[in-house]
Amino acid sequence: MDTVGDFLTIIRNANKAHKKSCTAQWSKIREGIAKILKDEGYVSEYEVRENNKGFKELELKLKYVQGAPAITAIKRESTPGRRVYYPYREIPRVLQGLGISILTTSKGILKDKEARQNKLGGELLCTVW
User: Is residue 43 domain-shared with residue 92, that is, in the same domain?
Assistant: First the structure.
């Protein structure tokens, strides 16, 4: 099971269907990704709430710019079968800085720019543009 990959697929499918929002099960990694997507302007907001069975859910309100999704593409980089790690100097730039990479580091979930500034390498979870 690839929970991060499933989460990214939920977002990708909701974007292609022009949904206003999408929901997924909550986890710390998923919430960290959602926070970065909100901070970078790819998602208008996210909310953690409890469903009727008492489990936490993460609801993302998707953002559209003139009818087009703000997220052009979201791609899983590191998978359970092939983990991808980078030292901070080698973290790839997405579209020469127009997109972002999301990494999991020893200091939590960070975007590529923050990881470089803090000199932290880690596992490259996904790229967004």
Answer: no
Distance CA 20, CA 38 (A): 15
CA 52 – CA 91 distance, rounded (Å): 41
**pTM for the whole thing?**
0.94
The one-character DSSP state at 72 is: S
Decide if 100 contacts 112 (C-beta within 8 A): yes
**Do residues 65 and 80 both lie within one domain?**
no
Look at residues 69, 93, 112 and tell me which one is the last residue of a structural domain.
69
According to DSSP, residue 98 is labeled T
User: Phi and psi for 114 in degrees, rounded to 5?
Assistant: -65, -40
Is the C-alpha dihedral spanning 6, 80, 70, 41 positive or negative? positive
63: containing domain: 3-69
Q: Are 40 and 100 in contact (CB under 8 A)?
A: yes
Q: What does the pLDDT look like over 30-72, one tens digit per residue?
A: 999 999 999 999 999 999 999 999 999 999 999 999 999 999 9
